[in-house]
Amino acid sequence: MSALLEVQDLEAFYGRTKALHGVSFSMAAGGITTILGANGAGKTTTLRAISRMVRTVGSIRFEGQPLEARATEDVVQFGIAHAPEGRGTFVQLTVEENLKLGAWGRRERGDLAADFERVFGYFPVLRERRRQMAGTLSGGEQQMLCVARALMLRPRLLLLDEPSLGLAPMVVREIFRILRTVNQAGVTILLVEQNAALALDLADHVFLLETGRIVLEGPSDVLRRDDAIRRAYLGY
Amino acid sequence: MDIFIQQVVSGLATGGIYASVALALVMIYQATDVVNFAQGEMAMFATYICWSLLNAGLPYWVAFLSTLGIAFIGGVVIERVVIRPVENAPILSIVIVTLGLLVIFNSLAGWIWTYVQKPFPSPFPSSPFRAGEIILGAHDLGQINVTLFVLLCIYLFFRFTPLGLAMRAAAQNPVSSRLCGIRVGWMLALGWGLAAVFGAVAGMMVAPNLTLEPNLMGGVQIYAFAAATLGGFTSPGGAVLGGFIVGVVENLVGTYVSFIGTELKFTVALAMIIVVLLVKPSGLFGSTVVKRV
Q: Taking CA atoms, what residue in B is nearest to A76?
């Protein structure tokens, strides 16, 4: 089986500082993979490397096609949607306008009505707020909008950066429930999370990143029982 | 009373000019955080191009529209060639670049077309429009209509077209825009093109009143600064309203405050800038931008 995403010997740089030291992993289509790790381990940088937002050395292939030479604007055309750290809301635009922008880069244009229905089906609260300025939404609603905006692309691969950050546990559970539904509808997900317990529940495969290197990987139900992971990330 | 209405209408006419240039300034400021000091000179240059086209025998509106096209392309090219390379430079460097553009356009116009004042035609009838005792200049009225039409077009463009939406998004949040697949660099270039178009409209509308010379837009640019400051550099609608307010106030003060007259009118604009910056620095409709550092 060929991989959907294949990353090999990836190094990433902020200025002259190296943030990733040769990361290699591959993801099959259809699953949910999570990258765990402490602050500064390089989780966000890995996603930013795939979206071509940092300078890198090494190879990144999506369905066999190299991404390294692409610009950020072009990566979406492969069907890779990135729900970034900090949510990236267009606060002075309405919810509806935010969603329209999510569909801007996709190959097949056509009617957006079906896409609106689909994301409003996932997140009914966004339908109620569709004419509201996105900046007036609560943190949880903005996170929902962020995921919804990414889904407007009809992505093959969804990159999610800390969707639980700063949100109430109930809201987080709701969002993670919807992510599972989204995945079952055929979207492969690469999730970066600090909340290891949540991420292990959702994901089927886990990579553990420490100071820019992958130190451990495996199916999540195996890693959940791993002593080192339990002590360092689950706290029991 | 008649004089009052006449002065208000002619204030609205010049106010529309200030509004157009102020809108151009605000658009570029919002997209790139840069005040384009060359905005007025770009407009003056476009007006000269129109003058040359008219001299070559083109009918007025053909020359007018051709000039808008040339101004648009010129604005895009300036962004791509001159502004793009300094995009990530400190703000002061970019300001100096726009000041450099100001000097270049001014000297270039003088070199090509000389500093001799040239009459510039108005497309509107020369006989004034009478309503009872009130006499209104036909050019003033035409100018108001043209400005309002341009402002309406631009509002509809930004509010209702996908490209307009993408341009607003690129100005607000470049990083998120790129992740949506929007070519942010080109959106900024389009913004410069559109701003050059507003400027060109303002230049061609104001030139019949002032006669064409390389310093045509110097005063207008100051008034436009006053307008944008008054309305708020973060509010396009505010800048437009600010333009009309500055135009009317300038005219009324010149008429009714005898010691100001026509000589000190200019001072009024500068005084307005200072008062606004002291009392409400974000302008009437602007929002205070908080930046995390």
A: B181
**Alpha-carbon distance A71 to nearest alpha carbon in chain B (angstroms):** 9
Paired sense of beta strands A80-83 and A65-66, if any: unpaired
B chain contacts of residue A106, beta-carbon cutoff 8 Å: 181
Separation of alpha carbons B196 and B40, rounded Å:
9
Q: Cβ contacts of residue B177 below 8 Å, gap of 6+?
A: A101, B166, B169, B170, B184, B187
| Pairing, β A157-161 against β A5-14 | unpaired
DSSP label at A112? S
Name, in order, each residue with C-beta under 8 angstroms of B110's C-beta and a sequence gap of 6 or more: B214
Within an 8 Å CB–CB cutoff, is residue B232 touching chain A?
no
CB within 8 Å of A227: residues ≥ 6 apart:
none
Contacts B175 to A, Cβ<8 Å: 53, 84, 88
Global pTM value: 0.87
Closest CA to B98 of B114, B109, B122, B82: B82
CA distance A134 to A149: 12
* Closest listed residue to residue A5, CA positions, set A25, A23, A31, A21: A25
Say if residues B136 and B145 touch (Cβ distance below 8 Å): no
Alpha-carbon span A17 to B35, nearest angstrom: 34
Query: Which residues of chain A make contact with B179, given a CB cutoff of 8 A?
Result: 51, 72, 76, 81-82, 84, 88
Are A100 and B177 an interchain contact pair (Cβ–Cβ within 8 Å)?
A: no
Residues of A in contact with B168 (CB under 8 A): 92-93
Task: Provide CB contacts within 8 A for A46, sequence distance 6+.
Answer: A7, A10, A12, A20, A23, A35, A192, A209
pLDDT of B3 > 90? The answer is no
CB contact under 8 A, A104 and B162: yes
Coil, helix or strand at residue A210:
strand
In this structure, how many other beta carbons lie within 10 angstroms of the beta carbon of residue A43? 23
Q: B286, B238 in Cβ contact below 8 A? A: yes
At residue A236 the predicted structure's pLDDT band, cuts being 50, 70 and 90, is: low
* pLDDT band per the 50, 70, 90 thresholds, residue B293: very low
Sign of the alpha-carbon dihedral angle for B104, B107, B113, B115: positive
Which residue among B173, B181, B183 sits closest to A90, beta carbon to beta carbon?
B173
Q: How confident is the model at residue A147 (pLDDT cuts 50, 70, 90)?
A: very high
Provide mean pLDDT across the span B243-261. Answer: 85
Residue B248 predicted with pLDDT over 80: yes
Complex-level ipTM: 0.91
- Rounded CA-CA distance B132/B210 in Å is 28
At A12, list the tokens. 């990433």
Q: Is A101 on the interface with B (CB under 8 A)?
A: yes
Ramachandran area for residue B261 (φ above 0: left; ψ -120 to 50: alpha; else beta):
left
DSSP state of A24: E
